[in-house]
Amino acid sequence: MNTTNPLTANGSDRLFKSERAQSVPSRVLHLRRVSAVVSENEVISLGLPFGKVTNLLMLRAKNQAFLEMASEEAAVAMVNYYAAAPAHLRNQPIYIQFSNHRQLKTDNLPNQARAQAALQAVNALPGAPMHAGNMVAAGGAGPVTGVEGGGPPPPGHSTAVLRIIVENLFYPVSLEVLHQIFTKFGTVLKIITFTRNNQFQALLQYSDAQNAHNAKMSLDGQNIYNACCTLRVEYSKLTSLNVKYNNDKSRDFTRLDLPSGDQQPMDPGMTFAPGIISSPYGAGFAPAMAFQQGGGLAMQTMPAPLSLSASVSRMSLAHGAGPPLGHAVLLVSNLNPEAVNPQSLFILFGVYGDVYRVKILFNKKENALVQMADGTQAQLAMSHLNGQRLHGKTIRVTLSRHQSVQLPREGQEDQGLTKDYSGSPLHRFKKPGSKNFQNIFPPSATLHLSNIPPSITDEMLKDLFSSSGYSVKAFKFFQKDRKMALIQLASVEEAIQALIDLHNHDLSENHHLRVSFSKSTI
């Protein structure tokens, strides 16, 4: 009987040739389609969210790699996750399966110095996995590995559920961004996101209280992006989260079978992995984290690097974290075809960026394409407007597969459904470094009014809104500047429509009313 271990110096080719797709769990995983330019750290990063990585073998000539986890349970959790949310490295999908080998023995193999150095660097990081048995893997696979932290949770805070508030929300923060950040400190089981008091918030459940404590101690007060999107992390009074739907607002990572709830129409050509979140950034992005030299977190979709604490400062959320910056076209669906027009979409989406073109689809008038100035503005608009009500219907906003909105050819019937606004004087952000970028807030029932001339009284403004069909609940001028005021209407939906109807309303000569959503209430 041949007793040669297939992972010895003479056996790497036989390992590759004999490897077959396996359904029998093993803590050794076989990775295919690994680009030759992918580093050892990048491959290791695929396994880190699920537990300690104990060994690595790179077969660059074959575009293959073998990754050994500390436990079989961790490997099962990893395979289950990436089966539904395919991993990406260098924008290339990676296929991961169980190996038919039970252990990696690479002591006598050449070119292993880099792999071993990478493993030692990872295990030396603060928060690196250190022992098995105190976490439950996503999918209920069993124990994986724990992490170091700042000691046990204080008395009375044994919950594994955290409440997260994102302050100074300059860039959109999605459920998946939170997952990628918080998964460094342990297995994240469930996340629910919502907006309360005009603040983006989330509830996040770890597999145990120790992980929650470690995350809170490390992340509270840190910025996701430079000088903005500040995390406020506190313990929740809840002990468990009940997630009913897997979508862009909530996610149970242990239940890939949950429905998505209110299904949103997909842009033709867009594909989503089965059972994975309909992400604002696209489909099925995994919690892959890659290390970069020099430290600092970076997200390709944002102009500023992530700037989290030292315990996570070497992670990068690049490689499949989102669409390119140039991806600026949005698909808006479930519109009311009887009420919508290009101008209303131009005004509404213009709150979050400069709208260049709008096209309502000729044969499907419940759908429209909105082209923003750039990808960052498109993401802002998508983050704040997806799920809002307009003209009595809940609209859905996703990224379109189109790179630009085409104007109709000369003589082509269009019925005025396509408009070019690239030269419009109503763009809010045409000045570089405009302060308007600092005053972007989610839709709310309270509107901020500005550019009010001295001759206009509060009664005149209230009459303007009420005569337009809106219920004015409260009104007040700013004490230090009567050019600005707040007006509170009956609902967010009513405020959205009022903004569309009355933004740029002519109050007097050279004074056109400016309407925005407010973060304050009256």
Task: Tell me what you see in this structure.
The chain has 522 residues and is an alpha+beta fold. The chain has four domains: 12-142, RRM (RNA recognition motif) domain (Alpha-Beta Plaits), CATH 3.30.70.330; 149-316, 2-Layer Sandwich (Alpha-Beta Plaits), CATH 3.30.70.330; 329-435, RRM (RNA recognition motif) domain (Alpha-Beta Plaits, 2-Layer Sandwich), CATH 3.30.70.330; 443-517, Alpha-Beta Plaits (2-Layer Sandwich). The protein has ten helices and 31 strands. A hairpin with a 2-residue loop joins strand 14 (278-279) and strand 15.
Total number of domains: 4
Seen as an oligomer or otherwise, the chain set is single chain
Specify the structural class: alpha+beta
Enter the CATH topology name of the largest domain: Alpha-Beta Plaits
Gyration radius from CA atoms, angstroms: 26 Å
The CATH homologous superfamily of the largest domain: RRM (RNA recognition motif) domain
Strand content: 25-35%
CATH classification class of the largest domain: Alpha Beta
Strand order of the largest sheet: 13-9-10-8-12-11-17
How does the major sheet shape up? 7 strands, antiparallel
Distance, first to last CA: 83 Å
Rounded mean pLDDT is: 75
Shape: elongated
